[in-house]
Amino acid sequence: MAKAKTKYLPVKIKDRPEFKLAYWEIDSGKEGPVLLITAALHGIEVQGSEVIRRFCPIAEKKILKGRMILVPFANPPALWNRRAHIVSTLAHPKGKEIWDDERKIMRFDLRDNINCTWPGNPDGNEAEQVSHALYNGIVKQATHLVDMHCWNRFTVTAALADESPGTMELAKAAALPAISVRPATALTSPQRPMPPTLSYIFKTTGRVALDMEFSGQYIISENEVARGVRMLSNCSKHIGMFRGKPEGTEETVMILDVKMEKITVTAQTEGLFIENGLAPGDRVNKGEVLGTLFNDKNLRSTEVKSPAGGYLYAYGHYRRFCDADLADMHPYADKGDTLAIIVRPKGKK
Ligand SMILES: [Zn+2]
């Protein structure tokens, strides 16, 4: 049996005390892939940290070849901040706002988001300095990547795929409820250049990477963790580092590509949206009751029914900043607000 070694990467951010980023390395002693598994690049996305903790002893037993590098806390200063980014605050949860001269709007400085900074910059901001240290100390040597993120709890757990070589196959092996497929041009579009995410760096250097999003930030849910552990075992099998075939691949119910359409269910009236016990990823039939709107002006109840059969991509009332502001998770909907998004094949009646 291989033994996981705890290793430490020294990281120095200017004007802050140096810290050591702890990670595990499992070496099979045989030639093979170097699989990097990362979690919590964003400080509020911690489900993958527990997934790695549980996966490590499994990997010690099952690794056949190559090495695994397991980084449960890839961005410790953001974790300590308990917010998405190192510099996030209550007033600026998504980082600093800057003036975009081209679009003539204020927008968030994407460079505060560590997953837009790869391979980092030793003279850059906090996020860029951390990604620089990680890139040179850990990332460079890897041949494969699984990078675990979390989005809001209202959206289905999904692998994010595109048409770069090997990505779709790895996403399918992951056996998550949904695979969201970016168009082939997304990686190379000059009009809308992709921010340099960790997986982007792999894909543009001929290495295979899987990006994924668990459902739920700030929390660790047993369901999601179990799904995540199976995903890592499945990916290890897919690239030949474990014996056997990926399990549960039939549980992927949504492949969100150009052949699918999203149908948005909106509130016919304002009111409290009371969910009906469904969850993102569930199948719904046309006419099925999704929940009830309880109107505060006339105390009437209105059932919200599904306009189509399909799968719930998103479910519940939430708004844009629900990953940072409790008010945006509030179940009170205005007329026209989104209550659910249903996915089904295009053109289906
Ligand atoms: Zn993230």
What does this structure look like?
There is one protein chain. With 349 residues, the chain is α/β, with parallel strands linked by helices. It is built from 6 helices and 19 strands. It has helices at 47-62, 76-81, 126-137, 167-174, 198-203, 222-238; strands at residues 4-11, 19-27, 34-39, 67-71, 97-100, 105-108, 144-151, 158-161, 178-181, 208-215, 254-256, 260-266, 271-275, 283-284, 289-294, 301-305, 310-315, 332-333, 338-345. The protein has a 9-stranded mixed β-sheet. Helix 1 crosses helix 6 (222-238) and helix 4 (167-174) packs across helix 6 (222-238). The longest helix is centred in the middle third of the chain and has 17 residues, at 222-238. It is globular, with a radius of gyration of 21 Å. The mean pLDDT is 95. Bound molecules: zinc ion. Zinc ion is lined by residues 41-42, 45, 115, 149. Residues 41-42, 45, 115, 149 line the site of zinc ion (ZN).
CATH topology assignment of the largest domain: Aminopeptidase
Q: Structural class of the helix and strand makeup?
A: alpha/beta
| CATH classification, class level of the largest domain | Alpha Beta
CATH architecture of the largest domain: 3-Layer(aba) Sandwich
Q: What's the helical proportion of residues?
A: 10-25%
Radius of gyration: 21 Å
Bound ions, cofactors and other small molecules, one mention each: zinc ion
Largest sheet: 9 strands, mixed
| Overall number of strands | 19
How much of the sequence lies in strands comes to 25-35%
